[in-house]
# Entry
Amino acid sequence: MRAPRKPFWKYAFFPILVNSAVLVALVSRDPGWWGMRGVYDRVGCLFGPAMPTVQGLHQGFPEGKIQAQTLAQAVPATTRLDSSDTPGWSVYMVPEGAGAQTLVFEVQAEGAQLLYFPRANGADSSVEVAVLDAGKTSPLARLTGKPGVWTPIGARWTIPLACFHRDRPILLQVTLAGPWAQLWVRNGSAFF
# Structure
């Protein structure tokens, strides 16, 4: 008498289970493994770029890599770059007699975000960051001061880069308005 035959599904189930577990492990480690990372990042861009956020207060200034960038334009052309008490750091401020200072940085960004360090004091002072793309200005963030209170020194603001084409430089326009608006820079670089 012949032994009863086991159904085929019992033999096929184990290899399918092992292959599925391996696939899930690979995909969960890195969605880019199967080519979808860019798609997931860009889906959010359909509703506009993600807004910058304050990453942390009083964390101090980074000593890491500076993104490749140049100051492409300044209006008015004479800028006011004051020294600071923090070694290696300087501060862009509004020049004497001007109501505002506009700085355009051309940044060749790497990574998923940019860091920058604005400060303001007083309701009449603000720092605004916008992206310039195809002749259009799109505001990203605005920091407005409060009367008699400086915003924290070393507060890290981030700009998510998922919605920007990184195959070419990004033009970021920083507008300092009022007497107590500041943009902190290291070696002339404002974005990290």
